[in-house]
Amino acid sequence: MSRARVLLVAFLAALALGPAFLPEFYVTLLNYIGLYSLVALGLVLLTGVGGLTSFGQAAFVGLGAYTTAYLSTAYALSPWLALFAGFALTGTVALFLGAITLRLSGHYLPLGTIAWGISLYYLFGNLEFLGGQTGKTGVPGLSLFGLPLDTGRKYYYLIWVLVIAALYSIQNLLNSRPGRAIRSLRGGGVMAESFGVDTAWLKIVIFVYAALLASLSGWLYAHLLRFVNPTPFSINAGIEYLFMVVIGGARFVWGAIVGAGLLTILKEWLQNLLPKIVGQAGEFETIVLGILLVLLLQRAREGVMPFFQRWLPPARWVEAPESAPALPQRARPKPGERILEARAARKQFGGLIAVNDLSFEMASGEILGLIGPNGAGKSTMFNLITGVLPLSGGEIHFRGERIDRLPSRQIGRRGIARTFQHVHIRPTMTVVENVAIGAHLRGRKGVVAAALHGERAEEATLLHEARRQIERVGLGEHLYDQAGSLALGQQRILEIARALCADPVLLLLDEPAAGLRYREKQALADLLRRLKGEGMSVLLVEHDMDFVMNLVDRLVVMDFGERIASGLPREIQTHPAVLEAYLGGVE
Amino acid sequence: MNLDIALLLTQDGLTNGAIYALLALALVLVFAVTRVIFVPQGEFVAYGALTLASLQLGKVPGTAWLLVVAGGVVVLLDGFIAVRERKLHRLPRVLFENLVFPVALLALTGWLAPQKPALWIQVALALALVVPLGPMLYRLAFQPLQNASVLVLLIVAVAVHFALTGLGLVFFGAEGSRTPAFSDARFDVGAMSVSGQSLFVIGASVALIVALYLFFEKTVYGKSLRATAVNRLGARLVGISATLAGRLTFTLAAAIGAVSGILVAPITTIYYDSGFLIGLKGFVAAIIGGLVSYPLAALGALLVGLLESFSSFWASAFKEVIVFTLIIPVLLWRSLRTHHLEEEEERE
After folding, report:
1. What average pLDDT score do residues A81-88 get?
2. Chain A: nearest CA to B1, how far in angstroms?
3. Is residue B345 part of a domain?
4. ipTM (interface predicted TM)
5. Is the pLDDT of residue A305 over 70?
6. Which of A210, A260, A286, A367 is a Cys-bridge partner for A42, taking CB atoms 3.0 to 4.6 Å apart?
7. What is the spatial distance between Cα A183 and Cα A553, in angstroms, rounded to a whole number?
C-alpha cells in the first residue's frame, strides 16, 4: 500500500472510531466541522479550482435549511423528501443567479454574491411563514431505516459519510474529462473554448454543484439542531466559509476539511478567550480572524495545505494507459480540396486596421506560411479564423461552410485546432492532462458520470490518445511533469500535441519554432512533413525564415494588415515588396 | 400616498443618496488606482460617526488608541526596512507621521475631550483621528500585496472589514449613537418642509464632490492619481510611485468615509457594524457605474437612496431585500453588454 493510502485509511479509521472515545463536546465540534466542510468542498470546486469567488454560500445553506424546516413542520413532509425539495429550490435559485452573474468579469461575481447573500438573509428574517428573526422551532429529527439519529454521536456518522462522499465525488470529477475543462477555466477560457469546452455552461454547473452541497449542509443543520433562525445564514457566515477555504488552501480538495477544522477550532477557542481579555461579551474573534487572514494572504497565499503536503507523497493525478482502444478519426478531406478561404477579411480596433481586406485560400494537405514583420496582423488573423475575435468585415469559409459567425468552440468542433503565440497552458497540471484537454470533444461523458467514476473506459481512451500525441511530438519523457516546469519551447510543442489530440484537419500554428534549439526545430519540421503526408493542412505563422522556407509549400506575406505578396518560397525571397517590408526601401 | 409624503420620502432619499454618492466615488477611486474593492469603506463611516459621538460624551474614543497602535506597527515595519536598507534619513518622517503625531493627538484628545469643546472642534478632532487610519491601513494590509490579483485583494479587504468591525465593537460597544443635528432650521418651500440638516448634508456632499473634481483636474497629485488609474505601469515609468498613489487614495477614501459618517450620524443611529450596509449601498451605486464611471455612480447613488426611502414606506421589512436585489437587474444589464470572452489571464 502506498503511503498516501495508509494515511487515508488511518484518517478514515480515526474518523469512524472517534465518537466512541471522544467526549460529547468534541463530537459536537466535529459535527459542525463536517457541516462546514460540505460547504467548503463546494467552494474549493467553485473558487479554488474554477476561479469563481462566492461570498454568498451561506444563503444556499439557508435555502436548504429553511426548505426542510418549513416543509417538515407546516406539512409534516418526510425530511428525506424535503431534502430533494431543498435541492430543487436551491438548484433553481443557483441556476438563475449563476446565469446572471457568472458571465461577469472577475470581481463583479463576488460583489454580486455579497448582494444576493444579504438579500436572501433579510428575506429569511422577514418572511412571516419562516418565523421571522426568532426562527422556526420544532423541526423533526432524522431517522434512517427506522433508526432514529437522535444523538450527536449517531448524527455524526451521517454527516461524515456525506462529507467523504462529497470529497470523493469532487476528486473524481477533477480527475476526468469535464474536470480538466473545469481546471482550465482559470486560464481565461480562450484556450478551453477553442477545444470545444462550453465554459459558460461549465461555470454554471460548478456553481450549482457548490450550491447543492451548501443546501445539503443546511438540511443536515436544520435536523441536527431542530431549529433554524436567520443568523447562521448571514453574509458574515458566507464570508467565513470563504475564509475556511483560503485558510485550508483553495486549490486543494482536502484543504476544505483542513480549513473548516482549523477555523472552527480557532473560533471556538477565541470565543472563550477573548471576552475574558476584553471584559465584555461580543464577537471579538472577528478581529483576530481578520488580521490572521490578511497575514496569511500576505505570507502564504496557498493556505496551510502546502505545509501538510511536505509530509505527503507527491500526488500523481492520472496515469495514461500504454494501450487502449483507439478513438475514431474524422474523415480526411480529399487532397487538393479547398479547405480554408478568407474573403476580404477585415478587423478594425477603433481607428487601427489590424487586418485590411485580406484574402487567401489554402488547399487540403498544404503547408501555408503566413509571414510578415511584427504587428503585421498575423496573430489577429488567427484569432479571426478561430472565432476568438469577431470580423469587422469579409467572410471566412472552411470546407465550403461559412464559419466567421460561429463561436470559437463550434469552429473547433469542425476540425480546426490551434496553438497560441503566448502559450495557454495550465502550469500546475501535468503535461498529459494539459494535452488531454485537446481531446475534449472526442469524449462525451458528463459531470455526473465523472463524479461517480462511471467513465473510466472512455477516460482511458482519451488519456491514451494524449499519451500517443505527446510521444509523437517527442515529449514522451515529460508525460507526468508539471507543464509549467517545461522550457518555453517545449511548452509550444505541448500545444501542438494538444492541438493534434483534437483530431483536426487544419492545424493553425502560431510561432511554433520560437524558443526551440536547432535539433528541435528539425524534429518539428519532420513532424509537420509527416502530418502533411497524412493529409493534414497546416497554416503557420513563423519568424524563423530558414525553418519556414524549407518547410512550406506556399507563402502569404502580410504587412500593416494587407497582403503584399504571395507565392512559392523562392519567389517570395526575391519579391521587391517583401524585401522592402523586411529590410526597408532600397534607394 | 399623498404628495406630502412623497416629497418627504424624496427628500430623505436624496439626503441618503448624497451620502451613498460620496461613498460610491471613494469606492470607484480606490478601485481605479489600487484595484482594491474597498469593502472596509463603510467602517470609516461608522468610525467617523462613533468617534464624534464619543467626543460629544466627553470620552476619549478608542480610535485614538488604535491610531497609536497601528502607527507603532508601521514604525516597526518601515523602521526595520529603513535600517536594513541603510536609508536612515527616512526614519524621522516615519517616526513623526506614525508615532509622534498619533501620540500627540491622543494627548490632545485626552485633554480636550472632557472639556466638550465646540462642535466644529470636535468634528476636526474626529477627522484627525480617523483619516490617518486610511494610509496606515494601506501600509499594513495592502501595500505588501500591490501585485496581487483583484480577487486576493478583495478577500484581504473583506478580512480587514472583519477586523475593523470587531475593533469597532471593542471601542464603541454594541449600543448605537446618534449625534445632534448640525442645524435645526426648517424651511418651507411650497408644500414641502425642508430640514436644515438635509440641506447641510446635500450641500456638504456637493461641495466635497466639487473639491474632489478640482483636486483631480488642477493639482499634480490629483493628476498623478488619474494617471495611475489609467495605466499603473506607465505611471510608474514617469515616476509616480504606486505606494504613494495608494497611500494618497486611502487617505482620500478614509476622509470621504469619515465625513460621510459625521454627516449621517445626526440622521440615523449608527452602530459599530452599520458601516458595512451603508458602504455596500455605495457599492450598489458604484456597480451601476461599472466601477469606472463617476457620474453614473453618483446617479446610481441617488437611485439607491430614493429606492430605499420609498421601499421603507411601502415595505419597510423588505427594505434591504429590495435595495440589494436591485443589483441583479443591473448585473444582468452589465452582463448583456459584455459579449466577447475575457482576455484576462490569471497566472499561477
Report:
1. 94
2. 23
3. no
4. 0.88
5. yes
6. A210
7. 38
In a domain, A324, yes or no: no
Enumerate the β-bridge partners of residue A417: A507
Write down the pLDDT at residue A116: 85
Q: What is the mean pLDDT of residues A225-253?
A: 90
The strand order across the sheet containing A401-402 reads: A352-363, A338-349, A393-398, A401-402
Residue after which a domain boundary falls, among A270, A293, A309: A309
Neighbours of A5 (CB within 10 A): 10
pLDDT at residue A32, as a whole number: 95
Residue B344 lies in a domain: no
Among A96, A121, A122, A288, which would you mutate to test the B interface (most chain B Cβ atoms within 10 Å of its Cβ)? A122
- Residue in the block written with cell 489577429: A380
Q: Which domain holds residue B235?
A: 3-337
CB interface of B with A, residues 271-300, below 8 Å? 277, 280, 283-284, 287, 291
Total structural domains within chain A: 2
Contact B228, B33 (CB under 8 A): yes
Average pLDDT of chain A to the nearest whole number: 88
A284 pLDDT above the threshold of 90: no
| Residue of chain B with shortest Cα separation from A245 | B155
- Closest by Cβ to A190, choosing from B140, B343, B348: B343
Compare CB distances from A105 to B158, B277, B338 and report the shortest one's residue. B338
- Per-residue pLDDT for A313 more than 70? no
Which grid cell is A165? 462522499
Element (H, E) at A4: helix A3-21
The model's confidence at residue A222, banded by pLDDT at 50, 70 and 90, is: very high
Q: Nearest residue on chain B to A122, judged by CA atoms?
A: B321
3-state secondary structure of B271: coil
Domain contains A49: yes
Of B163, B174, B324, the CB nearest to A119: B324
A34 and A156 in contact (C-beta within 8 Å)?
yes
**Per the structure block, which three cell numbers stand in for A91?**
438548484
d(CA A158, CA A142): 10
Chain A residues whose CB is inside 8 A of the B144 CB are: 298
Number of domains into which chain B is organized: 1
Flag whether A317 is in a domain. Answer: no
Contacts of B304 in chain A (CB under 8 A): none
Q: What angle do CA B255, B257, B261 make, to 5 degrees?
A: 115
- Tell me the residue range of the domain where A538 lies: 338-583
Mutate to test the interface with A, among B142, B287, B292, B335 (most CBs of A within 10 A): B335
Helix extents (H) in A373-487 = 378-385, 408-413, 431-436, 447-451, 456-473
Which of B156, B174, B318 is nearest residue A126 as measured by Cβ atoms? B318
Judge: A290–B163 Cβ closer than 8 Å, yes or no. yes
B270 lies in some domain: yes
In CATH, what number is assigned to the domain containing residue A483? 3.40.50.300
Identify which of A115, A90, A95 has the alpha carbon closest to the alpha carbon of residue A213.
Answer: A90
- Which chain B positions have a beta carbon within 8 Å of A390's beta carbon? 340
B175 CB within 8 Å of a chain A CB: no
Residues 5 to 44 of B: which have CB under 8 A from any A CB? Answer: 37
B73 Cβ under 8 Å from any chain A Cβ? no
Instruction: Among A115, A189, A408, select the one facing B284 at the smallest CB separation.
Output: A115
The residues, any chain, with a CB within 8 Å of residue B345's CB and separated by 6 or more, are: A187, A188, A424
B138 within a domain of the structure (yes/no): yes
The three grid cell numbers given for residue A248, joined into one nine-digit string: 485550508
Question: From residue A551, how far is each of A370, A372, A493, A523, B32 by CA, in Å?
Answer: 12, 16, 17, 12, 49
- CA B212 – CA B218 distance, rounded (Å): 10
pTM of this structure: 0.90
| Ranges of chain B whose pLDDT falls below 70 | 1, 190-192, 335, 337-348
CB–CB contacts below 8 A, A to B: 161
In chain A, which residues have their Cβ closer than 8 Å to the Cβ of B156?
293-294, 297-298
